[in-house]
């Protein structure tokens, strides 16, 4: 059983692990369980819960006892009994199933929509009846009050088949070219269909008239979304009487209130893949939306992500077991996915032992694989001097960095900075000494970091105490005494930089108050002067205070302009200093060493080579074909044949010419020697 956690939500995968072949005997299966640890530790919740090749759709019956799934190859439907935790029956079909619907509480009445336009009805004993619709179907829904089946597909018409009369009724004519999905509201019976043009048409089955039209394609386009094609409707689901969720082919989910044509919320999956299915989770007000890559669970009121689930293989369909935290997925793999999330709800009645199992796992957590590894970025590797290990087995690439063995990391860090432990030890000792000092009786003392901010907070606290003394006002906690903010006055990294551009522009009027506080700080640093100042009376006349408040309001714009002028002057001065430094610098000639055997021509060759390397492969091939060093021709088979001549350097060319002359001289010598030998054999004298 694999356990993953995202946003502190535990997800238990009950379908991971090795699956044993069906043709193995029980004896061999027991032998494998003894030998293989993975086979022994796996949890087979439902026996043979898989398809031969691929699973396309999966649903749960209304009574919760049966799980039905369709897949290939060969096309088939399998029914699993949850009370027996095993396969109940399997039926092979003539063609692949697009979707199916369970009309009864159990498996006794099922309707299948095939990809060859056939509709197949199955009863408890097996196949019952087969009929055909005029166009290829993509989805259908069942209207219980009238016993009508509504089929949508590659047509503008919505076909109606009445199961009580056993005949087709007049179709509903929509404005769309094609319809992808449909759904019927279980509360008031409203029928909705999603079109290729990105619209949702709502029909009243009683009057067979259209009562509403939603343009979801226009509403799905937001400022953050990047859309390259027209969004079409790929998923549709009602919840209650007034809520409807719509999924598009570009990866957006729109939440509507039927009383408004504007969406309440637009959620983007950011994958650009069509939404496969949408489900509502009532207990936590969640929406489960799935594309072929990921299942996202998010709050339907705020849109905040609750958690997400990303299987190894592509997703075809998702089914949420009612009133529980169990989830089934149909994937592009033989094995169907089973996931259990205790946060969503308890385990179903037929597998209640999962609650005890998960509680034991939470009580005894095992160390994960990542505890033995350290995640480092490329900058960390540069600081440690380990960039040469990139690509080696010591570093495993992951996202924007690498995983490396924690033991290797500690060894290298100790070699790079051998005194790191001593510094860490001294910091810890200093912190403990300061903690013991804090327990003693302290005088009114300002912290070492952010003294002006602390003084400001003390003044505000004194004013609040005066106001609460006069009026009964509820006092709020002070930041200085709050443990959550104590690091701000202890760690030097949190020191406010008053010389920064942001501080000077955002706090133009703080300068006057800061001057007063600086005076107080000087007085606090000089205790003798501070005692003399304490004897003097404090306070100002009321007229002065009122004039100061009015001046602060008037001078705000002037202070901002003044700070901006000062910033521009500082930038200008820095620019002039840089220009002067550049003028004073004297450029020295640079010398380059030429290797032995090479001849220097000019720097143009290097520039031409650099330009040639910046060109594309197609441009370089055209240039070489023009120079005659490359030839491209068609072969008899239909492929391309490419021949080229290698460029030789000047040294190689001279060496080849010398070898050629040497070979010619040796040939002349051989000819003259053979000529002399023949003359000697014939008895001719030598000259």
TrEMBL record:
Where, subcellularly, is it found? Nucleus, Nucleolus
Residue spans of biased composition, Basic and acidic residues class: 557-583, 647-662
Which ranges carry the NUC153 domain? Answer: 482-508
GO cellular component labels: 90S preribosome; small-subunit processome
Region of interest called Disordered, as start-end residue ranges on this chain? 523-584, 643-687
Its main localization is nucleus
Task: Give me the stretches of Basic residues compositional bias.
Answer: 663-687
Q: Where is the Nucleolar protein 10-like N-terminal domain?
A: 1-364
Q: Which SUPFAM superfamilies match?
A: WD40 repeat-like (SSF50978)
All copies of domain Nucleolar protein 10-like second, residue ranges: 369-417
Q: What are the alphabetically sorted keywords of the record? A: Coiled coil, Nucleus, Repeat, WD repeat
What PANTHER family would the database entry show? NUCLEOLAR PROTEIN 10 (PTHR14927)
Instruction: Spell out the family assignment given in the record's similarity comment.
Output: Belongs to the WD repeat NOL10/ENP2 family.
Q: What is this protein called?
A: Nucleolar protein 10
| Organism for this UniProt entry | Trichechus manatus latirostris (Florida manatee)
User: What lineage is on file?
Assistant: Eukaryota, Metazoa, Chordata, Craniata, Vertebrata
